[in-house]
Amino acid sequence: MKVDGIAYRTIWLDEDGWSVRIIDQTKLPHRFVVTRLTSLAEAAHAIRAMLVRGAPLIGATAAYGLALALRADPSDAGLETAAATLMATRPTAVNLRWGIERVRARVQPLAPAERAAAAYDEAAVIADEDAAICRSIGEHGAALIRAAAERKGPGEPVNILTHCNAGWLATVDWGTALAPVFVAFEQGIPLHVWVDETRPRNQGASLTAWELVKHGVPHTVIADNAGGHLMQHGRVDLCIVGTDRTTADGDVCNKIGTYLKALAAHDNGVPFYVALPSPTIDWRIHDGVREIPIEERDGREVSELTGLTGDGRIETIRVTPDGSPVANPAFDVTPARYVTALITERGVCAASPGGLLALFPERAAVG
Ligand code: MRU
């Protein structure tokens, strides 16, 4: 995607051929900063501290993190330590495990001297695949937006509500939930996006809004609690969100607050779509509420706010009184019954075991 006329992905190999470049998302929307990862420790920090975030990008960063680690120590012990270090960074997005396992499977059979080069190669393949998958999600999802536009009539914008950031910053390119928006916008379909601010870290207000500004897509940032009201008054035609882990039965884990939007959509007859690349499906589990580990993050994300001051400084202030305890579960699970359909790289399907297996029949044997 382009930022001020320059095409970027969210992660790429530096010109030196070994270090890795990322966009530091903690600085957005106020500063666009590209930073360099040179070690396993830096890659793990980038994931844990959310310089990179979003399930697919976490997976790609972990893959490059293993490559950086193997460059320093390609032994079996080095590989295992690096995999464990990266696995411990964030618990919810299954793409992390997927990315690590994919690189591990590629390098384990090789002699230590060959491992780093193979890991870099696999990480690059993962990144390229993610970009292609997300573009394809965009095509399938845009067809749903087009259908909504046809129902509304000429010139009437389709109002799409999204939560968190599932745009190109959350993936290698294009995004998941925002890919249909970008493709539909490219195709000239009139649309407008309601952007949930997404407290506590404000991925909607900071990142989704920034992406939409950069691409000229009409949008409005709303407080997280506004969505239900807008749906009751017919001002949302469809919701599209991303996911950090979706079970084989179609339960969807995504940023905290997604479940409440799905409930409001259900009550108001608003279609609720979830866009996901297949590496986000955890085929081993079925019941998302009981089986998906939910990340509990630092309470200061709730008790504090960070933003730009009038004189251009980035500052953090506290919004809770001294002595108030805070809790910060970062994700929730929307049961499949509230999901109208899943938008994948292979097409749109029901959020159900049958729906998923119809698109991914090769997974039937996995159990
Ligand atoms: O905590 P984050 O910012 O990593 O959470 C990201 C989300 O919840 C996204 O909606 C999800 O990863 C889907 S992104 C393609």
From TrEMBL:
Active site: D244 (proton donor)
Entry-linked InterPro entries: IF-2B-related, IF-M1Pi, IF_2B-like_C, Initiation_fac_2B_a/b/d, M1Pi_N, NagB/RpiA_transferase-like
GO MF annotations, alphabetized: S-methyl-5-thioribose-1-phosphate isomerase activity
Residue(s) at site: Transition state stabilizer: C164
EC number(s) stated in the UniProt entry for this protein: 5.3.1.23
Keyword Amino-acid biosynthesis: yes
UniProt keyword annotations, A-Z: Amino-acid biosynthesis, Isomerase, Methionine biosynthesis
Signal peptide per UniProt: none
Record has Amino-acid biosynthesis as a keyword: yes
Pfam family, one: IF-2B
Binding annotation for substrate: R53, G54, A55, R90, Q203, N254, K255
Catalytic activity annotation: 5-(methylsulfanyl)-alpha-D-ribose 1-phosphate = 5-(methylsulfanyl)-D-ribulose 1-phosphate
Protein purpose: Catalyzes the interconversion of methylthioribose-1-phosphate (MTR-1-P) into methylthioribulose-1-phosphate (MTRu-1-P).
Record family assignment: Belongs to the EIF-2B alpha/beta/delta subunits family. MtnA subfamily.
UniProt name for this protein: Methylthioribose-1-phosphate isomerase
Gene that this sequence comes from: mtnA
